[in-house]
Specification:
Distance between the termini: 29 Å
Strand order of the largest sheet: 5-6-10-7-8-9
Largest sheet: 6 strands, antiparallel
Shape: elongated
Number of helices: 4
Radius of gyration: 22 Å
Structural class: alpha+beta
Number of strands: 10
Low-confidence stretches: none
């Protein structure tokens, strides 16, 4: 169970530092990031992070991320065409958050229901990452509230306004008759097998 001292805001600040610097902050940097006036507060935070399994210390005593909390190992590449020998070597450590989401504070996840976007590779049960505050353009897959109904469709701008195009021929094009709100642009699809 997470303690009050370790909030999502603190974890996100540490993740941002890690993404930018490819390492965790030193105790002095922790003081600067969180506005602590003494290193003792930084030591206490680090101790809590260690106890709860977010970080660990390496052989030299440096703080390092633990497992998937800050990323997972990227171990190489695999041929998607003709088979070739695969070699495994540690290339980097990659956080899926870092790879899929450039601005977490402007993004959220939705679980997909329905099959109107299957030809775009979005299936029922998939998760989509939606980014708010992005100017949507024709061809983007968007989250939109059309006449008080939320939907996920391709956006097409026309001289008469906007149309929302499904990626399944079983469904009609949607044209707003009244209210229209764009909730965001789809940035990624996540699927578990």
């Amino acid at each position: 169970m997470r303690t009050k001292e370790i909030t999502d805001d603190k974890l996100n600040a540490l993740r941002r530092f890690y993404r930018a610097n490819r390492r965790l902050p030193t105790y002095s940097e922790i003081c600067r990031i969180f506005g602590y006036s003494s290193k003792n507060a930084a030591f206490r935070l680090a101790k809590k992070l260690l106890e709860e399994g977010y970080i660990e210390k390496d052989a030299a005593g440096r703080l390092t991320p633990r497992g998937e909390r800050f990323g997972i190992p990227l171990v190489g590449y695999v041929q998607a065409g003709f088979p070739s020998p695969a070699e495994e070597e540690l290339v980097d450590t990659l956080s899926l958050d870092e790879y899929l989401i450039d601005k977490p504070e402007e993004s959220f996840l939705l679980k997909v229901s329905g099959d109107s976007m299957i030809d775009a590779g979005i299936f029922e049960g998939d998760m989509v990452i939606v980014k708010r505050g992005v100017r949507a353009k024709t061809g983007d897959i968007v989250l939109a509230c059309v006449d008080n109904e939320w939907t996920l469709k391709y956006l097409r701008s026309t001289a008469n306004g906007h149309e929302f195009i499904p990626a399944n021929p079983k469904y009609p094009v949607i044209r707003p008759e009244g209210e229209l709100t764009l909730g965001g642009v789809i940035k990624a699809v996540i699927r578990k097998y």
